[in-house]
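Standup notes, structure subgroup. Blocker cleared on the 6-O-phosphono-beta-D-galactopyranose input:
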Amino acid sequence: MTAGFSSEFLWGVAFAANQAEGAYDADGKGLSQADVVPFARPGDYVELHTLMSPTPERIARAAATSDTAEYPKRRGSHFYDRWEEDVELFAELGVRALRMSIAWTRIFPNGDDDEPNEAGLAFYERLFRRLQERGITPVVTLSHYEMPLHLVTAYGGWVDRRVIGLFERYAETVMRRYRGLVTYWLTFNEINTTVIEPYTGGGVVDDGSPDRTQRAYQALHHQFVASALVTARAREIDPAFRVGCMLARMLHYPATSDPADVQQAQHDNDMNLLHTDVQVRGAYPGIVRRYWRENGIEVAMAADDERILAENTVDFLSFSYYMTLVSAVEPEKYGATGGNLFSTVKNPHLETSEWGWHLDPIGLRIALTDLWTRYQVPLFIVENGLGATDRVEPDGTIADEYRIDYLRRHLLQVREAVADGVELLGYTAWGGIDIVSASTSQMEKRYGVIHVDLDDQGAGTADRTRKQSFFWYRDLIASDGATLDR
Ligand code: BGP
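Run returned:
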């Protein structure tokens, strides 16, 4: 039997404030960019991008209403109100880590407020103290698609260099406040989203102007600088802090063995890994500088920026993995299917989820091996899971064998990579409890091992129910992964 997981391995669950907490305007919290994204039905990805990137007019209309029905992320799955119950469920599950984000707008409601919001600081302090009491290590994301809406509308999002200082101040405020309670910090969730989906990743509104990619790369640069400055600040505040970057690993395969397709896949992979090149190695790779040259993109950098990036690289590399993609020089020759944040060429060798995402456990082993070989820093899988429609049986049980199958098959591949020598800090399954999905704002796209009785319109009791996968994951953690073979 393949060597297992160490007893120090950080098994856990993960979610984001804007998808779980709800209470979007409670206790002084300000409107975030997520609070104006409307409910989206699965379907054509053009529609999805449109919905995920509201126009200035739609933002203004949404900001003027207190309606929650149309904006599911305003209600999430009630974690803010039911956090004590949920922490007890996580403790029963036996998780050793909870990856979660702090909502920037609970701390600085508008982002540029003179003083932090004490009610917000106190909420997360209560939560972190309880996690410490229950032996659960928090892994805290500072920015998870939930920046203050005011910074989007009044500053233009991350395109404005002043946002670097505002983010630094927010990060320093929470790092100092939670010193002794939090050790693991992630700066930007899936930082590669900023160029794929500039509104979601960088608060860059789609106002129809042609320079959106230029603005997206400028926003991304400011985020890289902010991440590096926060990494430096973290080391000053507490040398025990461990700071990680976070990438949505978009692993691409070539459509055929034609070298042109293989080169296309290498290019697509390197354009994904440029983000970890910057944050782990400390410099932009040539491939993106060439892309800028050939597309007329000029990223404005201050004199010290490249030194800041070079001198403040991260301690570990965290990433999300859901599926793999396919690269082809002539994609129109093949069918298309869905994917995390964008669609891809259909892989004839892989099944897909209900939302069209390729199901590829071996891909996770490939991703781990690639990242370890390329960077030789500790890795951390902070998102992996299956979004699926679950059925509640008449007796109240939820027999989500398909989710157990997905998690088992992916974790068997993780174990193979660990046996090959990959240094992996932990694995936090996405969701934990059912939450509002990021791309489509659906509750019915369920990821949790704990069911939440809410539907897409927010109707229901919000009561929590352990799914069959809860018991499977509990036993897996308790056995340090040994039950994978059963
Ligand atoms: C990642 C996000 C998460 C999560 C996940 C699943 O991009 O970091 O927030 O939501 O994708 O995507 P979705 O919720 O759209 O199914």
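Discussed briefly. DSSP finds 17 helices and 14 strands in the chain.
Next: hand off to the docking folks.
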